[in-house]
Amino acid sequence: MSSIAQQHTSTFSVRDLELKLKQVRLAHPEQSLPSPPSSDSGSSSPKQDSEESYFLRSLKECLAIYEESSRPRSQSLALLSDEEVIMLANNGSIATYALEKVFGMDQLERAVRIRRAILSRASATGTLETSSIPYENYDYSRVLGACCENVVGYIPIPLGVAGPLTVDGKQYPIPMATAEGTLVASTSRGCKALNAGGGVSTVLVGDGMTRGPAIDFPSAIQAGKAKAWIDSNEGHAALREAFESTSRFAKLKSLKTAIAGRTLYVRFATTTGDAMGMNMISKGTEKALEAMQKRFPEMLVLALSGNYCTDKKPAAINWIEGRGKSVVAEAVIPGHVVKTVLKTTVRDLCNLNVKKNLMGSAMAGSIGGFNAHAANILTAIFLATGQDPAQNVESSMCMTLMEPTGLNGEDLLVSVTMPCIEVGTVGGGTVLAPQQGVLDMLGVRGAHPQQPGQNAQTLARIIASAVLAGELSLLSALAAGHLIKAHMAHNRSQINTPAASVPVTPGAGFVSRV
Ligand code: ADP
Fold first, then answer.
1. What is the pLDDT of residues 165-177, one digit of tens each?
2. Residue range 273-295: average pLDDT?
3. Is 279 near ligand 1, meaning CB less than 6 Å away?
């Protein structure tokens, strides 16, 4: 055969094949090519290969398969390739936010993969689909309807462990998720000094999550009457009964009222068992307001949260009244340990603590910021244990105190007072498997079997104690003048300035960035 004849034959045979395939696909969509990749098959290429796109069916064909009423949508989707589903989504037949709903529980990873492609191709950069943001091998069933929407993957954060640290006679590893070099090493150094003095003792002085709705009345007089009723035994009892009917864990502890013009604010405070408790208290508050509305039909609930709570915003009310767990953590460090481990003196530490953490923060007009870097340690533990990271705003409020103690004042008495540690071991991000692994490591995962609330309280005690370690280490480094040196050596990214790779062993001068 001549070469021209050969070309002709091959061209015709491909066209023939295409026509045949089309006929088969129309007649038997379930046998059609290509077979879609199964969601959890481990297929790593988000892009369809050229062969597959060659066999892409028309929009009309895909719609006919998708909308076939004799089988569930999830089964129809299993007959379509990723590219074909993307075509349906781009056509508006499937909402991008609802992919998980139509795919069903056993195709969640596929839903995420397809969303990545759709969003990526619609974006200016087009990078998401092939980016290094991971999405495979993640349990999206725990995320769905609980933790996140429009999911395109997950963001890994390095997890380090400081310590162990002895807290109330028990040793705990301190899990810290962070990208700040020196933070874990510095906290570990603080743990070493604390352990040498026998460890940390904690006291829980309060436990109550709060919600503060804003309620409008026609006049200040009427708002005043409602305030007086809530403050009376009768009003308090009526609201408590309604509030506590919503959960066996919610026990109303206090009601604090305040008026501005004709608007009334009521700060509900309640125990929430092992949950951080925002959902729980919102439910209780809603029910209590329904009961109040019967008594004051003229009232108008403007918002369940009227910022008198105060959630995720700086506020003096939290610092003064407390929110979540209120914890004091305290320790004594022998003078010789201050010298050998912390490389400073009791006198220098106490002096610096007064001038920096107390006077400096007072000069800056701080509310609850009488510390060196409580937020650093707290946020790293929050991320590791599935807490709501935005609550670091009030949870990090902390006053660090230091004074000489013992014979001739040669030892150091150190404490942190943290009135607003908002944590839970059930609900929220604590349902995710990796975060549960961290809670397991601490022995505080889930609901406490005998005493509801004790797991969350223990976690708060551990956090306050770790903050104490962080405070000690940073203050010591500042007192000894180690801060800049340590950061220059160990906290500068080497990635953009390639140099010989030298393994780093944290030394005494390690401190975190503040
Ligand atoms: P949050 O109120 O922190 O937002 P969720 O409402 O998501 O948390 O989770 C609390 C749920 O867990 C509630 O439905 C509650 O009934 C349940 N639960 C089970 N055991 C406990 C416990 N020991 N403490 C608190 N809640 C618990």
1. 999 999 999 999 9
2. 97
3. yes
